[in-house]
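User: Fold this; tokens only.

Assistant: Input:
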Amino acid sequence: MTKRLYLLLQVTCLFISSAAFSATLKGKVTDDKGEPLPYATVYVKGTTIGTAANANAEYTLQLQPGTYNVLCQYMGFKQTAHKVTVKGAETITHNFSLQEQSMEMKDVVVKANAEDPAYAIMRKTIKKRKHHLEQVKEFQSSIYMKAVGRNSSLPTKIFGIKIDGEDISEGGGGGADSTKLGVLYLSEQEADYYTDGKRERTVVKSVRQSGTESGVGLAQVPPVVSYYNNNVNPLWDISERGFISPVSDGALNYYKYKYEGEFREDGHTINKIKVMPKRDYEPLFTGTIYIIEDEWAIHSLDLTLTKKSGMQMLDTLTVRQSYIPLKKDLWIIKSQVQYFTLNFFGIGLTGNILLVYDNQKVNEKMPDSLFDNKIISSYASGANDKDTGYWETARMVPLEEDEAEDYQKKDSARAVYTSPEYRDSMRRKGNKFEVMDFIMSGFYHAAKEYKSTYKSNSLLGGMVTYNTVEGIVVNPKINSTHRIDSSRYIYNVTAVRYGFGNTHLNAYDRLSFKKYDRSWLTRNWEAGIEGGKYIYQFNPNSTVMPLYNTVSILGYGKNLMKLYERYTAAAFFNRQFGNGLNVMAKGGFQRRLPVSNTTFYTWANNNPEKWTDNTPAPLAGMLWEVHNAVLFKAGISYQPGYKFIQYPKFKSPVSSIWPRFTLMYEKGIPGILNSKTDFDKWRFQVEDYVNMKLFGSFEYNLATGGFLNNRYVSLPDMMHIADNEIAIAAPYLAGFQLAPYYMFSNTANIYGEAHVEYDLNGLLTNKIPLLKRARWNVVVGNNTLYINPNNYYTEAFVGIDNLGFSIFRFLRVDVVRGWDHNRKTYTGIRIGLDANAMGGGVSIEEDKENFNW
């Protein structure tokens, strides 16, 4: 105990003495005319100790007692040195004035059609690309990061709706100033970064986020981007394809280079090379790269991406990197700043992310335990509890004036926006009934302190529909959530349904309890019961939504939905383990009742003899009668390879690159409660997304299944596919775009199903003049169902996605051609929403609700 106390006192004394006797070197970096040079690099020669200036070109650097040769550099300007002696705790001011770098031209013989000297330089650099990439096998660094987002312009109205600057500021207000322009987002953090070339780990030591007391900033700082990689993505995944580095193996096929001179710096000859794409609308940079003579390494770079480079969300992204020598032939990154701009509907957004690397270490062995437990990022204890005083001394880069004001203003505003009075006023405002909300999105009501919330379906979202069995249907549905505490919730769905044609009143309720793990995001379990009498489609995978069916009947005289009525009593359980493993089980009783058409009213000029019976014609010979069914269903789904971010109070999963495997089993149990159903049905499924960078992306969903026993299989229990006959696309990678309804429903012992899709992501369209300007992408693929040689269906499609405007490019149009076992062909056009563009998992269909089994 005494030894531990002694050690603690030693560490404490060292910390105090370090803080007490360190000096602050500060100042401003300007050119010889006094103009500021933002984000200039300032560091101690021969070390990795250094910093970067802010946007106003102000810098601060902490130094221990001693004599130092401090260097200041900025792209396009001469490096300047300043000798400083630190004796103790003091503040030393020194302003750097840099002169513009005068370029010398190589002695070359100018001939007609002669190759620019830049090409010889770049060939040598490309030849050493792999050497520079592999010489840094292990890397660790302390990182200071500051991320700022601002709104640079704001219209008074969008689509006729008045816009208030407060509405787009963080936390509901306080972000924009009185001119409605200002800081929207501001965070800064200190972190330690480690990589062994294959694995990465970030440890966030401290973080501050404007406007929130418990902000976590960016758990994963922007990646340490090495332009020695052939394919780079400067800011997370701003493009699925990535971008071709100017020093990649194939760069000469994509880039033009221009030699703009050379200069001497600290004993090195530095070549300035202008980088230009050979063609527009390729994933390429434009800008300047500085190459060190003889070592053929990157000294610094200033590269820009635009919409023509293939970015979807951002308008421009500029990356500036500055390197320093660690030893001969080894240059390491010292600072990086990324500037981005975005404009949509007149709202202009700008931002920058500044990264300063310090205490870099190369190829020093790191313990394997650092990369254990699948944690790729974690937070030190109390990382987001640091006070203002801590940041005043720890901050490597001074705040700009509006940033300091933003911290102060939002910290003051936070007390208002988090107060019970303000939250209650916003709750009451949200509870006000609006006719347009009721029509488009439904009615919403929140109880005091949001303990309970209630949400109805909307008028256009299924509250009033029409079908040939029930006639006009009034179908209000209420979803309610009741919060017991921060981890326990009760969910309830109540639906009432009345058909004016068959005069049937149906009602259904589902009640469940859900327990969330507060320490592990996405880890939870849910148990519940459901019951009532309701209307269902025979096909639980049906793509026919009530609204589509209403339009089809009234507009075209075609009744697409095939319905039956059923009583249900069931219980269910599901659990998400938060690591890619999910399980579910459900069991219950059903009494199934056939129903018939009661009305044939339509606005179309249609012959009533063409109306189809409510029982699907392809299944006319199958078992269908009033009967009871006792059913049990279980499933397990697993996606290996999950990694995690350990936040201060909870752990959150990061998506895996592995496929997801799913196994489902369903049993019809005869005899119990006069149940007639007697079958065993199974399905095994594998689905994955593969990013092939420049060559696009490939997705697949493969499945096999069948009936181990099919002694009594009623229509709802058959294997049904997501078939489709309307112009709105069936779910991509799950449905069949042209397959006739119920034509391929079956009870086969085994079947195979495949959905594959290849999105070229501009691989071809960026070569075609009109298409590349529109930034449309080609998608090709196939959907196939194989039951036996006498029963199969396949379809091929080619489509265009990324249709739309500005950042709203979600539409997709496909031309589809299908064939079946009878050699019958099907051709059609399908329109849908691209799920990947919407962030994944988004379908054009409205909620299927109907409590399907």
